[in-house]
Each structure stands twice: as structure tokens, then as C-alpha cells.
């Protein structure tokens, strides 16, 4: 299944990043680099999906990408100098 999940990467004072999602408050992970933090999101999302299934809860409908075969969804925030 392909999901569209908004993520917030927060830099930590000791280094690294914490990743959370305003849509899924249960999704929390971290990493030493942005790349590592984003790579850890897959495992964190799988755990949240499993927990929702175990509890009989439904994920928000706007998270599911209907046409996973032909869709690519990308949003990013870029700051200009």
C-alpha cells in the first residue's frame, strides 16, 4: 500500500532529527541525518498501521493513494537564500 503522510523533521540540540506526523500522532522516529530519519519512517509507519489494525481503527482516508501503480506524490519545503 502506498501512503501519503505529512512529516515534520525537527532538529535536535544534541544532533540528529526527530520525525513526527501531524496526521498520525503515534508516528515518531528519529535519525542522525535527514536521510536516516526518513529511512526510519517506513518502519515507524508500518508499526502505526499494525497498531491501528489491531485496535480496529481506520487510517485517515486522505492518506491512501488510490492509484499506487501510476502515482508519485511529492511535496517538499524549500527555503530560498
Description:
- This protein starts with 7 loop residues before the first strand and ends in a 26-residue tail after the last helix.
- It has 81 residues and is of the alpha+beta class.
- The model has no long low-confidence stretch (mean pLDDT 87).
- It contains one helix and three strands.
- It has a single domain, classed as Double Stranded RNA Binding Domain (2-Layer Sandwich), CATH 3.30.160.
- It comes from Stenomitos frigidus ULC18.
- This is Toxin-antitoxin system, antitoxin component, HicB family protein.
- Residues 6-70 form the HicB-like antitoxin of toxin-antitoxin system domain.
- InterPro entries: HicB-like, TA_system_antitoxin, TTHA1013/TTHA0281-like.
What is the fold's blueprint, element by element?
Layout: E1 8-11, E2 17-20, E3 28-31, H1 34-55
Antiparallel strand pairs: 1-2, 2-3
Which descriptors would you attach to this protein?
single chain, 81 residues, alpha+beta, Double Stranded RNA Binding Domain, 3-stranded antiparallel β-sheet, 1 helix, 27% helix, globular
Ends apart, CA distance between termini = 37 Å
- Runs with pLDDT <50, length 5+? none
Structural domain tally: 1
Proportion of residues in helical segments: 25-40%
- Give the number of helices: 1
Secondary structure class reads: alpha+beta
User: Main sheet: which strands, in order across?
Assistant: 1-2-3
Order of helices and strands: EEEH
Specify the CATH architecture.
2-Layer Sandwich
Most strands sheet: 3 strands, antiparallel
In one word, what is the shape? Answer: globular
Average pLDDT level:
87
What is the strand tally? 3
Indicate the proportion of strand residues. Answer: 5-15%
CATH class wording: Alpha Beta
Rg, please?
14 Å
CATH topology: Double Stranded RNA Binding Domain
